[in-house]
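Archive transcription. Copying these from loose printouts into the bound notebook so they stop getting lost. Printout 1 of 2:
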Amino acid sequence: MNNKKNILMIPLDERPCNYLFPYKLLEDNPEYSLIVPERERLGKMKTPADHEYIKSFLLDNASKANIAVISMDMLLYGGLLYGRLHHFSLEELCARLDVLRMMKERNPVLKIYAFQLIMRCPQYSSSEEEPDYYGDCGREIFLLGEAYHKRKLGLPVDEKLIAEYEKKTAGKLEDYLTRRKLNTDMNLRTVDLVGDVIDYLVIPQDDSSLYGFIKEDQQRIYSHVQNIKKEHLVQSYPGADEVGMTLVCRAVLKDYGVCPSVEIFYNTEGVPQMVPKYEDRELGKSLLSQIAAAGCRIADKGEATDFILAVNGA
């Protein structure tokens, strides 16, 4: 007789880090099994997943699952990359978001752990994972976002350079910013489901920076989180491909009713204050958020810890 608890998972995309690695977390655990969609139905690169299949998969399996770990980028857009390319309407995306409520109606005790990225803004020109025009003016789109943000904050900017960037991005920036705004609006609508439909939410930031479009979106989203007092149920930090595994870890630990303690060991002084490339905050602050998202806590001083996390900042 199979007494395993079922974890229903929708990964960020079909790559091994998102589709196969979560199995590694559970392969030696006899108490849990992972239910995932067919890999070939999840799309590839700029080809989106089959949404009707994803919807049916979730609704068909909701009643037999104890836990669900869901990539909102896959559910809403058809995957990580297509979230940067789509032309879906707000109405279409809201209908897709409502699938979570349908799942909860079919299984009111289902625990839903979700993650939804803030759309990235790469600092370089490349169309490999972005709209085609990003290969021509991606760098300028990033620099414009940085300059606009600094100008709002009253920091010095070069207006002549801004004019050059605007000229280079003419006819393309509107498409980019329209999609950014819509995706951020969907981040906010997902946050509104926390505590009711969604039990815990992570909002990762991919390729972030101290200033720019992504930083402004992050601030807008987290201000909303604070206004509705859901900080204890929402984490936002730099990350992407690891978050599915982080939430599988959190779900299992919560199911066991344990919260392991972690002691952080840095190899040199100053490492916690480092701001890694493509991130927007000190490494020490990011680690605290990642540890909390995984369902763990920082060990008290003098406590015998469950784990030591060694960090090499060289």
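Printout 2 of 2:
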Amino acid sequence: GNNLYQVQALTPIDELNEKFDSDLSDADYDTVGGLLLAEFGRVPEFDEVMTLADRFEFRVIKADNRRIITLELNVLET
């Protein structure tokens, strides 16, 4: 769909913010994967979902036992 994107976990948060005119904090974490690891509090498994800022729904589509690799991003209508 128009609001679905595939995002690498190593994508810098500032790039995501620039692309989607958002303001996710990059004060503590540099990458989308780092931010999501902190939000989950652990390494998430395949198909787990996290919503951030009531606008971004991230679904894990590839991870190993130490890190998130690839995400599906659904930009929610606000």
